[in-house]
Amino acid sequence: MKKLYYSISEICDLLGLEPHIIRYWEKEFPLLKAKKNRAGNRIYMNDDLELLALINNLINIKGQSIKSINQNFSEFKTKANILKNKQNIENQFAEIPDIPSKKKDANAKAKQIPDNIKLLIQNEIEDLINLLRTS
To answer: What number of H helices and E strands is found in the chain?
Structure first.
């Protein structure tokens, strides 16, 4: 069941992104505008979620630049038209190979380390820091 709106943290969990990335994309993509609730927190509607998922796919999977995506989006004028033509937009970029990045590789390697090993490393680092402080 789809929700009526999502918080920025829910969007982050769904798309595997950090909040600062979504806020940055709001500045870069004119059609992406979150509404704010009475408390001033961003709220995203279903069409915002779909647009964010499309942008995420084009940037992080297809390796596209924000500039090239904006140029493509400008042809459609509205968020509704972009979402209606989502498949065509994705297909335009389908032949461009995924560009591996060092950051993606580092994140993938970090995720492979078991939590208990991460905890041991963290404890060792804290012990080293404490040792250096007392020296």
So the answer is: 8, 3
Please give the tally of structural domains in the chain.
2
pLDDT tier, 105 (very low <50, low <70, confident <90, very high otherwise): low
The range of the structural domain enclosing residue 46 comes to 6-99
Placement of tokens 């560009």 in the chain: 99
Kindly report the pTM of this predicted structure: 0.65
Q: Average pLDDT, stretch 1-10? A: 84
Identify any residues that bridge with 7 across adjacent strands, giving them in sequence order: 43
**Which spans in 5-114 are helix H?**
8-15, 19-28, 46-56, 66-74, 79-84, 86-92, 102-112
Please check the confidence at residue 61 and state whether its pLDDT lies above 90.
Answer: no
Pair of tokens at residue 43: 């709220």
